[in-house]
Design brief:
The protein has helices at 11-18, 100-105, 122-129, 217-220, 230-237, 244-247, and strands at 5-7, 35-38, 43-50, 61-69, 87-89, 107-112, 114-120, 138-145, 151-161, 173-183, 223-225, 259-263. The protein is an alpha+beta fold. Strands 3, 4, 5, 6, 9, 10 and 11 form a seven-stranded mixed sheet that branches. A five-stranded antiparallel sheet has the order 2-1-7-8-12. It starts with a strand and ends in a 28-residue tail after the last strand. 36% of the residues are buried.
Length: 291
C-alpha cells in the first residue's frame, strides 16, 4: 500500500520534469509547501491533463493541480470515507465502482521523493503471534528511486459536489485523488548485488529480515505504489485514452531494481513530525521503539 510519502519538489521543478505548459501551475497562494510526511487527507500536488477552466478551447492541457489525497467518488453521499480511499488496487481498478470511471478518463500522476513503509521484524511478528507481545515493533523504511529522480505514482482523481453547500460556495466542489498500488517486487533491491551496506538493504545472499535489512520490497510489505516510468507518462495522462485494452498494459508493474530502501527514524510514524531529517538513513533498524 501507500499510506505515507514525501514530496519536497516545488511547482517550478515539477512543471519542468513533467512538461506542464507555462502558466498552468498553481498560483503562489495555492502552492503546496514541501512535505516530508504526507498523510491521508492532506493536499498534494498532482499532474493531470484536462481543459482549462473557463477557457474557450476544450483542448486538454497538462497542468499541475492541488488535490486532496483520499478519493471521494462523484456519487458519494458524503466525503466521510475519503481516508479509506487513499489507494486503489491495480488488479481491480477497472471493475471497482469507486474507481472505474476515474480510471477510464481521470488519471493523474502524484510526484514524490519516495514513500514510507513499515516492516515488522520476523522475531517481533513471532512473539506477537504467540501472544507474548501485544504490539510488535515496526521499523519504517524509505523507498526512493536509486538514481535520485522523481517517483511518479499512478493516480486517479475525481470531483465531488457537496449538496449541503450552494453552487457558488468556494468549498462546494471537492477535487480528490487516490494512488494505484500493485504487488511489491520480490527481486533484490538496487545496490544489493554489490553487497551495499547500511541504507541499501541486505546483501544478495542474506535472508529476508536479517540485521542489515530486507532484501526486497515484498519483505517490507506485500504491496507498493504503481510507479510509472517516463515512457508511460503521456499515455497515462491522456484523457482520450479510454479503451480498456490500451489502458491495461499501463497497470503492469515497472521494471524491477529501480529503487532502494533504507531504515529511517520512527519519528516519521507521528504525522506531526515533518522535516528533511525524516529521510536520513540509519545505520540499522532502531531498537526499543513502537510504531
Amino acid at each position: 500500500m501507500c499510506g505515507r510519502f514525501a514530496a519536497s519538489r516545488g511547482p517550478e521543478d515539477l512543471a519542468g520534469i513533467f512538461g506542464v505548459e507555462k502558466g498552468d501551475a498553481p498560483s503562489r497562494s495555492e502552492t503546496v509547501v514541501p512535505d516530508w510526511n504526507v498523510a491521508p487527507t492532506k493536499t498534494v500536488q498532482v499532474v493531470l491533463e484536462r481543459p482549462l477552466k473557463d477557457a474557450a478551447s476544450r483542448r486538454p492541457v497538462r497542468q499541475l493541480r492541488n488535490l486532496r489525497w483520499g478519493l471521494v467518488p462523484s456519487w458519494s453521499k458524503s466525503p466521510d470515507g475519503a481516508a479509506r480511499m487513499i489507494n486503489a488496487r491495480a488488479e481491480t481498478v477497472q471493475e471497482k465502482p469507486s474507481f472505474r470511471r476515474a480510471f477510464a478518463a481521470r488519471r493523474c500522476i502524484v510526484p514524490a521523493d519516495g514513500y514510507y513503509e513499515w516492516m515488522t521484524e520476523p522475531d517481533e511478528r513471532r512473539l506477537e503471534v504467540e501472544g507474548k507481545k501485544k504490539r510488535a515493533r515496526k521499523q519504517p523504511y524509505f523507498v526512493t528511486p536509486a538514481d535520485g529522480s522523481v517517483m511518479a505514482f499512478a493516480g486517479l482523481y475525481e470531483f465531488w459536489r457537496d449538496p449541503a453547500l450552494p453552487a457558488d460556495h468556494p468549498q462546494a466542489w471537492w477535487a480528490t485523488c487516490t494512488i494505484v498500488t500493485t504487488e511489491a517486487e520480490t527481486t533484490p533491491l538496487a545496490g544489493q548485488a554489490s553487497g551495499a551496506g547500511a541504507g541499501a538493504g541486505a546483501g544478495a545472499g542474506q535472508d529476508e529480515g536479517e540485521e542489515d535489512g530486507p532484501r526486497s520490497l515484498a519483505a517490507i510489505h506485500p504491496r507498493m505504489p504503481l510507479v510509472l516510468t517516463p515512457d508511460r507518462w503521456d499515455d497515462w495522462l491522456d484523457p482520450a485514452h479510454t479503451d480498456p485494452a490500451r489502458l491495461a498494459p499501463l497497470l503492469d508493474p515497472p521494471p524491477a531494481g529501480l529503487v532502494r530502501a533504507y531504515p529511517v527514524s520512527t519519528a516519521v510514524s507521528n504525522v506531526r513530525n515533518n522535516g528533511p531529517e525524516l529521510l536520513t538513513a540509519l545505520e540499522g533498524p532502531e531498537e526499543g521503539t513502537l510504531f
